[in-house]
Amino acid sequence: MTTAKDLLIIAIEVDPGGPVGQGDLSLALAGAELIDLLGARAVTLAGDRVVPAGPTAAEDRLLAEAVASLVRQVPYETVDDWLWRRGRDLFSAYTAVLEEQGQLTRQRRRRMSFAAARMTVADSPARRRALHRWAADEPVVLALAAAVGIQGDQTADEPVVTDDAVTTVLAAVHDAVMELEAVRQRRSFENAAFANVWRGA
């Protein structure tokens, strides 16, 4: 399992039906992938630029796709560009893989067949691993979850990430999620103004 898969499992388990949007999670999943690639030494950061560090064989299919999608021409891409490019529809990609692996199921409500299916995580070693990372207050996991609005019950001092490259990625995830929320609010205001025009307001 990867940090991205663990994050998705945590999001579904800890905050089922919560306010976390797919777009927010997609950005955080892209950040989680980049953090795993840093840990595997598949990439390094030069400032805020993602620099491929040589061939790396990732066992995880989606992480292998992430490696294959790296921009390998100078000046490379920024962490922010990576999040927006790689994060496009990444939530759907991860849920599809977890469903395929039997880690995730969708349950429709009997009386409301038109309602969106509720996702549940199967009891498995993958689920237990993800929840263990959450309960253990892993700084990276907590920071990624917090970036999308998932808060735990941790009472200890906030864990600190000491790796500068990881800190750069986490800050970029936070900024990207905030930017996405600003876009949502602007569209909401524009739609409301448009509706007022039609109502003669």
From TrEMBL:
Gene3D superfamilies associated with the record: yeast vps74-n-term truncation variant domain like
Record's keyword annotation contains Isomerase: no
Protein's cellular compartments: Golgi apparatus membrane
Annotated membrane topology: Peripheral membrane protein
Predominant location: Golgi
UniProt keyword annotations, A-Z: Golgi apparatus, Lipid-binding, Membrane
Protein name as annotated: GPP34 family phosphoprotein
Organism field: Streptomyces kaempferi
Lineage: Bacteria, Bacillati, Actinomycetota, Actinomycetes, Kitasatosporales
